Amino acid sequence: MPPFGLLHRRAWASLFGQLLRPSGLVCIGEVHFHSQDFDIAGQFDPMIPDAECLKIMCEVLSGLQLGDFLIKIPWKDVRHEMVAKKGLAPEVADRIGDYVQRHGGVSLVEEMFQDSRLSQNKQALEGLGDLRLLFEYLTLFGIAEKISFDLSLARGLDYYTGVIYEAVLLQTPAQAEECLNVGSVAAGGRYDGLVGVFDPKGHTVPCVGLSIGVERIFAILEERMKTAGLKIRTTETQVFVATPQKNFLHERLKLISELWDAGIKAELLYKNNPKLLTQLHYCEHMGIPLVVIIGEQELKEGVIKLRSVASREEVAIKRENLVAEIQKKLSES
């Protein structure tokens, strides 16, 4: 069976990009802000799942149309692992760091392979091989230009065991004045030792994953909508089912069931006898575009009133034509 991440990656990226809300395919976590996570666990060949996580991060951020972004990979953590865990001489690691600081990217990796001092060290060549492999996969995914090493980047989560990354938005000076400074909007990395901490037998399960900062993205989108003078909708409801009559709950329930069966996002107030004005005010407050109204007169005539919340115009529609007329109105909006 494919690993969780590879099995559901497309569905996860699509769902997140469209809904921006938790789904059954992913884990929800909180570090310093609400986030939505994607992880791949299991023993695989080097850099393949790591590259896919970076690809997913690019897909989500591109789909949200937040603007240009850059995913940063910190040299500080790479150097520590090379020296402390891989036994690489500090001066060799510093030499690599100098290259990364000056240029970065796939061309830098190839340049380092030509360095006479680095080429004499087996461990340095192994590390460069991993970097070359990662950038090879990132190039095949078409995202290599979105990835950059960054010496200034550091994360305080001590369970990471390999390269970590953060995504930040690239803003023009004008955009920087208008938008909130929210820091990174996505982050992730490799944490091969975390699962073993919770396993009584201490089994090691290599893992790599990412988190998308839902709360921070919401803050950016809300600020941009306010700047543009747009009203922020807090519901996906397309149609509200209302009535001016008492004792019409059964009719409202039958009507909303028809709309649900047609795939229309509809709702009603959970009250037996709500006032019509209360129902209409609710639609205006929530930004619900359409209202269908059923009462005694409509029931006798076999019609339903369809009301535009924005214009307050109402038209009588034959009940059998209601779904088609609603779908037409929604497609035009």
From TrEMBL:
<feature type="domain" description="Class II Histidinyl-tRNA synthetase (HisRS)-like catalytic core">
    <location>
        <begin position="80"/>
        <end position="217"/>
    </location>
</feature>
<dbReference type="InterPro" id="IPR036621">
    <property type="entry name" value="Anticodon-bd_dom_sf"/>
</dbReference>
<keyword id="KW-0648">Protein biosynthesis</keyword>
<protein>
    <recommendedName>
        <fullName>histidine--tRNA ligase</fullName>
        <ecNumber>6.1.1.21</ecNumber>
    </recommendedName>
</protein>
<feature type="domain" description="Anticodon-binding">
    <location>
        <begin position="238"/>
        <end position="329"/>
    </location>
</feature>
<dbReference type="GO" id="GO:0004821">
    <property type="term" value="F:histidine-tRNA ligase activity"/>
</dbReference>
<dbReference type="InterPro" id="IPR004154">
    <property type="entry name" value="Anticodon-bd"/>
</dbReference>
<comment type="similarity">
    <text>Belongs to the class-II aminoacyl-tRNA synthetase family.</text>
</comment>
<dbReference type="GO" id="GO:0005737">
    <property type="term" value="C:cytoplasm"/>
</dbReference>
<dbReference type="Pfam" id="PF03129">
    <property type="entry name" value="HGTP_anticodon"/>
</dbReference>
<dbReference type="Pfam" id="PF13393">
    <property type="entry name" value="tRNA-synt_His"/>
</dbReference>
<keyword id="KW-0436">Ligase</keyword>
<keyword id="KW-0067">ATP-binding</keyword>
<dbReference type="InterPro" id="IPR033656">
    <property type="entry name" value="HisRS_anticodon"/>
</dbReference>
<feature type="binding site">
    <location>
        <begin position="159"/>
        <end position="160"/>
    </location>
    <ligand>
        <name>L-histidine</name>
    </ligand>
</feature>
<feature type="binding site">
    <location>
        <position position="39"/>
    </location>
    <ligand>
        <name>L-histidine</name>
    </ligand>
</feature>
<dbReference type="GO" id="GO:0005524">
    <property type="term" value="F:ATP binding"/>
</dbReference>
<dbReference type="InterPro" id="IPR045864">
    <property type="entry name" value="aa-tRNA-synth_II/BPL/LPL"/>
</dbReference>
<dbReference type="InterPro" id="IPR004516">
    <property type="entry name" value="HisRS/HisZ"/>
</dbReference>
<dbReference type="InterPro" id="IPR041715">
    <property type="entry name" value="HisRS-like_core"/>
</dbReference>
<feature type="binding site">
    <location>
        <position position="155"/>
    </location>
    <ligand>
        <name>L-histidine</name>
    </ligand>
</feature>
<keyword id="KW-0547">Nucleotide-binding</keyword>
<keyword id="KW-0030">Aminoacyl-tRNA synthetase</keyword>
<dbReference type="GO" id="GO:0006412">
    <property type="term" value="P:translation"/>
</dbReference>
